[in-house]
Sequence to fold (408 residues):
Amino acid sequence: MGVVNKNFTKLNENYLFSEIAHRVRDFKAANPDAKVISLGIGDVTRPLCPEVIKALHSAVDEMACKETFHGYGPEQGYSFLIEKIIEHDYKSRGIKLQPSEVFISDGAKSDLGNISELFDNGNLVAVTDPVYPVYVDTNVMAGRAGELDENGCWNNIVYLPSTLKNDFVPEIPKECPDIIYLCYPNNPTGTTLSKEALKMWVDYALKNKAIILYDSAYEAFITENDVPHSIYEIKGAEKVAIEFRSFSKTAGFTGLRCGYTVVPKGVVASDSEGNEFQLNHLWNRRQCTKFNGTAYIVQRAAAAIYSQQGQKEIKETVSYYLNNAKILREGLSELGYQVYGGVNAPYIWLKTPEGFGSWEFFDAVLNKCHVVVTPGVGFGPSGEGYVRLTSFGTTEDCVEAIERFKKL
Ligand code: PLP
Fold:
């Protein structure tokens, strides 16, 4: 009989979202006439923009013709897309990248999960808390997380609390992590790091030879001038950081699937004998072995967002979601709630009122307002006492949700 990877058996089923679904199902069964509004959705709801649709149609037509058909493409992605990314997302901010430092993929989640394969299990991993669960779970699968303790923490992972107490800016821990996951703008808190705060982490990594895995899936939502769009805006980051980006929230590609990962050639890690290896080389080797490239038509669609018209169209959609975030943020703070995020991110992080834990507030909002939010504790122990609201629904629903919150 085959023997399973024991690390997989340590993971629970996704308790958070199955428990939410369960409670919403029970509520609907008991209240069949209630119109439930979901502010829990982490998926976009607006359709792809016309420029992307045009590019998709034209790429499909190319596939129908012997002369323009595309079979396997380069595992690293087509240069027509890589060049646009470098020009638009980096060069415009004074960041120099070589085409071989950018890897196109089917989305940030896969890359964020797969990157862990490059690292030995002896590395100490740090995550901010609360956190996008993929970073933790993929390290559990790899066998690097240790065991789950009674507080819901893995005993071999360093948790960096990001709460009101520290203005959602994680502090350098007393342990010495080798790999640090940072995500800004942040899911779930919707907060950002200033250049100064990010520099503190880059300097830490430079000094301690640590690697930063920087997830900037929500970069397109940044509206404030002093918020860094890329970690490479910080001097020295090109020696210690890998950056993950996604077209999912930037351009509505959650169902189309495309993202990219930047692995600068200056980022190195050593083996147990002290020999240094370029992570760019290892990642290229990994991708060439296990990944056969993102679909040609999808890469053509992604390239279309960089035209003048494409930029205009995707920005309109991002503005629509940011306007929803504003309605929620302002409406809730007028009602006296403490709310964070929502200015440079599609997420609002709400401090639950005195006496309400995350789940108690979830139940109160569902039962009294017929609105679904996400309990913050589902993102990690420091999320207790908060809930997350997303702005990916319709404006009408956001306005209506605020009206209903007045009943609470
Ligand atoms: N990173 C963060 C922080 C996310 O919230 C998400 C999706 O919700 C992803 C990455 C995944 O992005 P993709 O759709 O490109 O896999």
